[in-house]
Amino acid sequence: MKEVLKVSNIEKYYGNKSNLTKAIDNVSFSVNEGEFVGIMGASGSGKTTLLNCISTIDTVTSGHIYIRDMDITEMKSRDLARFRREELGFVFQDFNLLDTLTGFENIILTLTISGVNHKEAEKRVLDVANKLDIADILSKYPYEMSGGQRQRVAAARAIISNPAMILADEPTGALDSKSARMLLESFENLNNKLKATILMVTHDAFTASYCSRILFIKDGRIFNELIKGESSRKEFFNKIIDVVTLLGGDATNVF
């Protein structure tokens, strides 16, 4: 399988010499095209810092991150902005939709900025909306949608430009259980049908059970790795619970 992401010996420090904190400690891993990978860890473990470095929101202190063979740790800020827009899709806990735009306008905006022909852009929006079951709410504004609908619009916006990877930071954190399940099924659909590569940070074992592989972070290092393989989602969930227990974390939801 083709490698989309390669994280090579990265470290991240915060503070100064008198009060130095190592948030990421020599982390290396890779993600292949079409994988759905979760990152789990207790609060303060470094998982969000890791995602921020991969997403170009933050910079590493040392090491390298390659996305589609491009070293993002060596890019200039202008190149990074273009790379982020063209190669990365984002799904945040608080949706980050523009309140003055409809669902359709929120999704198509990325393509408009990139200069995609309007007819082609509209076709792509409708195609993704049908796959995520949000075609009937495209004319609504975010305040007229449920939390789950807003998050699926955000997922559509993330995938619309065919990015190298979708990065999701606690995407179910603000959703009720029904909406969370619908969003995760949408992610599963994007991964299975569109072969979308997804990297998701979560603290929740139920959410993580939708992934194909989990990396567990403890004290800035990779503590363990689980691969779903042929396991059912319930079996995978139970394995995740076992590791979370070893980490001393809180798995929150039950299956």
Q: Can you walk through the features of this model?
A:
- With 255 residues, the protein is α/β, with parallel strands linked by helices.
- The chain has helices at 47-54, 77-87, 103-113, 118-131, 147-159, 177-193, 205-208, 233-247, and strands at residues 3-16, 19-32, 36-40, 62-67, 70-71, 88-92, 165-169, 198-201, 213-218, 221-227.
- Helix content is 36%, strand content 27%.
- It has a six-stranded mixed sheet, sandwiched between helices. A four-stranded antiparallel sheet has the order 2-1-4-5, with helices on one face.
- The mean pLDDT is 90.
- A hairpin with a 2-residue loop joins strand 4 and strand 5 (70-71).
- The longest helix is centred in the last third of the chain and has 17 residues, at 177-193.
- The two termini are 31 Å apart.
- The protein contains eight helices and ten strands.
- Which stretches of 5+ consecutive residues score pLDDT under 50? none
- Helix amount: 25-40%
Number of strands: 10
Distance between the termini: 31 Å
Strand fraction equals: 25-35%
Biggest sheet overview: 6 strands, mixed
Strand order of the largest sheet: 6-7-8-3-9-10
Order of helices and strands: EEEHEEHEHHHEHEHEEH
Task: Choose one word for the global shape.
Answer: globular
Number of helices: 8
Q: Could you tell me the radius of gyration in angstroms? A: 18 Å
Overall average pLDDT:
90
Task: Report the structural category.
Answer: alpha/beta
